[in-house]
């Protein structure tokens, strides 16, 4: 559950380190959860693919807020993270430095699930 203004660590190798949520896509609520696409601004970057101060789309990968699945289990992570997307919705980086949850098995995130290490 991430509100507008929340800071996220970027876990792909796009060069960005820290991003801040400035908006969300496709939902009327004010909070973002795992798997939601959000609009972020890059606060800290190191590399050539992205520079600080630019706006990008991102998908929320991990949240500190507990996530509950339909089978009754729940889990939470120790940090809030995201992976950057381009305007077409494909990942900017070519590697994700974290385990992915089963919420990324959906066909929409097929390209992203290939980049991750394994599913959790």
Automatic annotation (TrEMBL):
Keywords: Ribonucleoprotein, Ribosomal protein. Belongs to the universal ribosomal protein uL14 family. The keyword Ribonucleoprotein applies. It holds the Pfam family Ribosomal_L14. InterPro entries: Ribosomal_uL14, Ribosomal_uL14_sf. One of its GO terms (cellular component) is ribosome. This is Ribosomal protein L14b/L23e. The keyword Ribosomal protein applies. CDD domains: Ribosomal_uL14. The lineage of its organism: Eukaryota, Viridiplantae, Chlorophyta, core chlorophytes, Chlorophyceae.
């Amino acid at each position: 559950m991430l509100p507008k203004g929340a800071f996220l660590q970027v876990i792909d190798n796009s060069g960005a380190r820290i991003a801040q949520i400035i908006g969300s896509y496709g939902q009327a609520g004010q909070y973002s959860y795992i798997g939601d696409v959000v609009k972020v601004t890059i606060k800290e970057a190191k590399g050539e693919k992205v520079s600080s101060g630019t706006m990008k789309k991102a998908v929320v990968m991990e949240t500190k807020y507990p996530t509950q699945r339909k089978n009754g289990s729940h889990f939470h992570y120790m940090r809030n993270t995201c992976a950057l997307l381009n305007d077409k919705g494909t990942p900017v980086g070519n590697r994700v430095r974290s385990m992915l949850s089963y919420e990324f098995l959906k066909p929409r995130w097929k390209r992203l699930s290939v980049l991750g290490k394994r599913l959790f």
